[in-house]
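Chain A, query sequence.
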Amino acid sequence: MTVAGSGGLGTDGTFAVWAPAAGAVAVVVDGTAHPMAHGDQGWWEARVDGAGHGTDYAYALDGADPLPDPRSRWQPDGVHAASRVWDPATAPAPDDTGWTGRGLPGAVIYELHVGTFTPGGTFDSAVERLDHLVELGITHVEVLPVNAFDGTRGWGYDGVLWFAVTENYGGPDGFRRFVAACHDRGLAVVLDAVYNHLGPSGAYLDRFGPYFLGTNVWGPSLNLDGAGSDTVRAYILENLAMWFGDFGVDALRLDAVHALRDSRATHLLEDMAMTADGLAATLGRPCTLIAESDLNDPRLVSPRAAGGYGLDAQWCDDVHHALHANLTGETQGYYVDFGELDALARVLREAFVHAGTWSTFRGRTHGRPVDLARTPGYRFLAYLQDHDQVGNRAAGDRLSASLSPGLLACGAALVLCSPFTPMLFMGEEWGASTPWAFFVGFDDPALAEAVRTGRAQEFAEHGWGAAEVPDPTDVRTFERSRLDWSEPEEGQHAWLLEVYRSLIALRRTEPELADPRLDRVHCDADPSSRTLVLHRGNLRLVVNLAAAERTVVVDGAHECLAAPLGAGVSEGAVTLAPESFALVRVG
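Chain A, predicted structure.
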């Protein structure tokens, strides 16, 4: 049996819940318990007259205290309280019928956290800043997880009810309005979806059935291949279909898919790709899946006909690591193999540094080469910063806290002129001075203390003292992480914002910059002079990372398309100021 409609309330008005080990189950509707009948394969059912949109309900297993519905669509009073029926057919639905979707080729993605994107921290207040993204040239807005989590603030990765949109941001109706407002401006919506673990507070799935099997780095992992796993997999696929169908999102970013343990012949990721393909045919618009993975395995984004999983794209941390290490000089931890300029040149050509080669950090060989002739570059997301790479630093400091405006612009040029799908992290485009630290808002004092202590210990292992790590449970850590929207019009912030706007515009007007053919990309690095030349058709991105002026030979250079700090182009050479770049045409 599968459940459609509004959470545990089916389209026929019957409540249903999967609890295969329970001896008795009751659905408590508006305070009144109604015994449920045992059905097939561990499902329980009960019809309650008058139940519908807005009805409060919960499930009592074997006489214990009622629990929220694992498929709840609405948790207005928090993740420990009763669920409320949210019927997508009855709830207010903005007019979004004219939207036909946007595919990934040619995309420029903008990653944001709803709670800190604006002072209001809601979907509705985020809508007020969407025009900024349109003017910037963004095509896709990626939203960090919005499913229900315990407490008043958090990144979203501690979600425990995957079908419910958190009330902290405006609940399911608010998210619908946000998606419609994005579509009205031509912006596609990417939602970050977490299927590899649940948060530590309010996770009651294990009380209902065998949802978990084994562990991963975050705790219990989903039961994808053990007894009862058919229903667990259906739970995930139904959730995927809900986001695309009932909320109209255009893509899902699948968090840390390397933590999904599945030994079946058909991996869950392949099941998800086939489900998304079917939805795309039904809905008449692209339904895109983007994986986060540290496996460096091109099979994730290879077609199923070629033995791959058939996902549309994946995040590419190797590009980030090479950019970060070469711009900052940091080579500790997982940056150890990325600090040479040759490593940066390699990822710009091949996506992966570790491609069946030695990984010092892992102490083993890692990854597999990308087929450059058959794999388009847009299948890899490239970024200078993202929520993890900023927020998981001890102080949550952005690159703007340590790099010059010139180096920030160089990093932007390398991402936006690359053959990959570029992604920006909110505020990056103006070099925001606000940090973005790790924060939580758990009400349980013991859990809050465990997070606080664990975070300090984690960073102490990396050489940061506890005093340098902001208290993640202090509301001030959250408040300091909000963007300051007065900055984009000021001084160097305004200058950098114009650099980003110009580069994104060039990516639209110069087809060579959006050309996804990786086998046509070349990159020349000169470590001694700290210069690099990226070849994109008849265009050359010339970058000087040194703190001194450099002249770089570029045969046939005759027209400068972008040089925010100025450049001299003459007799087949480009002269660059310290820490600057130029985009030139040759031929």
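The first strand starts at residue 14 and ends at 18. The radius of gyration is 25 Å.
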